[in-house]
Amino acid sequence: MSDTYVPLISSGVAGPLGVVHLPRLWQKVSLEEKGKLARGYPGVGKGFDAMTLAALGLEEQAVRDYIKRNKPTYPQFEAWVKKNAKSLNREAIGNHNAAVRGYNHDDETRRGILNTCSIADDASAPKDAVNLNNLDDWYEFHQQVLQ
What we know:
By secondary structure, the protein is mainly alpha-helical. The chain folds into two domains: 1-103, no CATH class; 104-147, no CATH class. The chain has seven helices and no strands. It has helices at 22-33, 48-56, 60-70, 74-84, 90-102, 107-116, 129-146. The relative contact order is 0.16.
């Protein structure tokens, strides 16, 4: 068994608060704080992670500190988010979710993921970053755990 883990919660998944990507952010930071996040995955990256923090008005270091100190379950993390988010309302969540779901990778990134996964870059191939990232995660999981 591997000592590190590929995060397998999709960016398209939301918890009870309805914020997509938030469960994945919790999982990645939690794994990173335990030294168990697979190589190549940032605990907090510049893409969906940064978008989620900005949309909710949360500071990265505060999130990291809370997770490091408390090792929360996901519901405990959401309770903390409810208390600490500066912009946790229906409109902010809706705008954030639409931005995540509507984000597309650049052509080079899309082609690279599809090529790695042996998927033709044609009309049936996913274009959105959420589904492309899922494919990338599943490939990395297969390489690191199932091979």
